[in-house]
Amino acid sequence: MKKSSIIVLTVVAVIALLAVIYRAVNNAPSASLTANEQVVQVLTDGGCASCHSMAPDLPFYAHFPVIKGMINKHVQEGYATFDILPFMRTMKDESVPNEVDLNKVEQCIIDGSMPMKEYYLVHWGSSITPEKRDRMLAAIKSIRARYFHNPLAAPEFVNEPVRPLPDSIAYHPQKAALGKLLYHDTRLSADGTVSCATCHGLNTAGVDNKRYSEGIKGQLGGVNAPTVYNACFNFAQFWDGRAETLAEQAGGPPLNPVEMGCQSFDEIVARLSEDKAFVKDFIKVYPEGLSQATITDAISEFEKTLVTPNSAFDRYLKGEKSAMTDEQIAGYNLFKQYSCATCHAGASMGGLSYELMGQRANYFEDRELTQKSGLTDGDNGRWAQTKVERDRYRFKTPTLRNVALTYPYYHDGSVETLNQAITMMAKYQVGQELSPEEAQKIEAFLNALTGEYEGKTLTNSNMNK
């Protein structure tokens, strides 16, 4: 046999052997496994925790020259973007996963971005075959239906990463009525000049449209005031998540020396106690009387009423196809295509996770160059509470509901227009340069997120000035 023929046959044999090995190590999970078990198997076989965890078990060659730098970079970026271990634990013990985590895994499967080619060229069992893809998407659909039931959506939209807002959530009417009075009461501030509504006006989309809000004595806060509308859907309150509940959040500003400046709730109680008519009404609902606990509870009950349903997008998801324009529908598709819906998820389209500001480019370095604005305490984000270095520059994702009315944008209030916020988010969070046409379509979609409050489309009186 000729030497060339031997070489050809050898190559063919090697390719065939590699194909056999590839199929052997890259099987899709068995259909007999539960949805959770299938997800766990694919993520485990894929070695996802090798990059998306704090202390991955790296192979021996990860310490080789040249390769070491590349692997360390991938691990650092992977962990910063997504710590997969909490999600894996929920899959294994069949507890409720974080909705954003579920969306992130799904999006990677849809767009084929993970695992990276550099990884699966060495780890053959990690690549996502068509069969694996189908099994994973079906499993995630099943998990979403189990934990994030979506009864308001039309059948074709029940598996979307976002859901229509409900018309309302449960609250105590009498307590909410008292909370509304307290929300607008300047007696909660030391000098009687600032109320909750000062920075979170109901007629200005739940914000004040200032970069930094003004507290007593003209002092400015360190971060942009987020909207109070739909705050009841947040998994935590404040940009850094320092309050777990609405009531806990309501207790913060009155005691903040920059915002409302009170030394304690005792002085607030003393001022309110002078209003005999108010106290009489208050005790009818709270027999235990005025205190920090009852005051903040009442305010939290009122904030539960600040739901803004029935936006054009809500109606579209419920099956009213004409509720959104073709441009807005195209914008929604781009919104999902560019992974925006992974973090801006759920009914409120945000408020469900902490995300790093600047996953694909350094936002703070660029801000320093363009705005001559150095780092502030407000830029530390979640780190301020945890002191865990991974949490530095990580913020609770804001809701996008009514976002067309809640300018300026970002935690630092540095971006004036929605279009600019969109293009910058694509750059810093997704690593994409949007075309003007794409940005316009996404902006049109975001305008469809303006909902109703008390039966009327939400407006912002500042926009008419």
Automatic annotation (TrEMBL):
<protein>
    <submittedName>
        <fullName>Cytochrome c peroxidase</fullName>
    </submittedName>
</protein>
<keyword id="KW-0560">Oxidoreductase</keyword>
<feature type="domain" description="Cytochrome c">
    <location>
        <begin position="326"/>
        <end position="450"/>
    </location>
</feature>
<dbReference type="InterPro" id="IPR036909">
    <property type="entry name" value="Cyt_c-like_dom_sf"/>
</dbReference>
<dbReference type="InterPro" id="IPR025992">
    <property type="entry name" value="Haem-bd"/>
</dbReference>
<keyword id="KW-0575">Peroxidase</keyword>
<dbReference type="Pfam" id="PF03150">
    <property type="entry name" value="CCP_MauG"/>
</dbReference>
<dbReference type="GO" id="GO:0004601">
    <property type="term" value="F:peroxidase activity"/>
</dbReference>
<keyword id="KW-0349">Heme</keyword>
<dbReference type="InterPro" id="IPR004852">
    <property type="entry name" value="Di-haem_cyt_c_peroxidsae"/>
</dbReference>
<dbReference type="Pfam" id="PF14376">
    <property type="entry name" value="Haem_bd"/>
</dbReference>
<feature type="domain" description="Cytochrome c">
    <location>
        <begin position="174"/>
        <end position="306"/>
    </location>
</feature>
<dbReference type="InterPro" id="IPR051395">
    <property type="entry name" value="Cytochrome_c_Peroxidase/MauG"/>
</dbReference>
<keyword id="KW-0408">Iron</keyword>
<keyword id="KW-0479">Metal-binding</keyword>
<dbReference type="InterPro" id="IPR009056">
    <property type="entry name" value="Cyt_c-like_dom"/>
</dbReference>
